[in-house]
Amino acid sequence: MINIRIVCVGNLKEKYWIDASREYEKRLQKFCKLNVIELTEQNKYQEINKILEIEGKEILTNLSDKNFLLDINGEQFSSEQLAKQITNLSQCYSTLTFVIGGSYGVSEEVKNKLKNKISFGKITLPHNIARIVLLEQIYRAFMINSGGKYHK
Amino acid sequence: MINIRIVCVGNLKEKYWIDASREYEKRLQKFCKLNVIELTEQNKYQEINKILEIEGKEILTNLSDKNFLLDINGEQFSSEQLAKQITNLSQCYSTLTFVIGGSYGVSEEVKNKLKNKISFGKITLPHNIARIVLLEQIYRAFMINSGGKYHK
Hints:
The structure is a homodimer.
Chain A: E1 3-9, H1 15-28, E2 33-39, H2 48-60, E3 66-76, H3 79-89, E4 95-100, H4 108-113, E5 117-119, H5 127-145
Parallel strand pairs in A: 1-2, 1-4, 3-4, 3-5
Helix pairs in contact in A: 1-5, 3-5
């Protein structure tokens, strides 16, 4: 069973996001070993670059052998293409890590190190919705790969 | 104050989607007169074309003078571009209607009649998440237009 890690900056605050996230985490148990790593959002500093630098260092210590950064300017995949990617990569890697930045995005260092950038479209999503969409897309990918009826 | 209508097929079932939707509906009260019209999802028929035909007729009776269809193959806008569209259109139209199809999408008739198609990216979103993302993007658009700090 493949390990999927979601490294994200900041926690979910509202109960409805927490519950939505839990639902997909529960559904994913059937398909993968899921690990959601919530890094502390920096709020001690005024300067955005300083915030991104500290958050970035934390992100970089939590990577695995294959990593993806959610980035508005990244490559767009259809859900079917993402499903195929997960199938193919699971042949070569034991852990796939997906990184979602904080309110201000991620540092240039993180952007440079994480070459695989996935975009969910041109719109700016808040990090809480991005996290739910990511979980749903991973679940959808497994449902596509298992031939389930979920994906029409 | 502009009227925003969201015409969608099927209701939100899970409490977390209902609560998330309510939160954005509440926030939007400040900026527009929002009307969410939930049409009945057809489940009497086996045949998908029949379902789409009946749902489609319902959609077409709920349009206004300016309509957008959420369509995976539609035009992608950034959040800033969507904000600008809303500003510009509010000069000419009193009501903007956004249509979200049901589990099987929408009929060809609806696709043909609604020329303005917006895509939130190449991924397939379930209709409940699409609805929350739409509400958030409309809220984000108003925040961008009002110069608020929400959009970074």
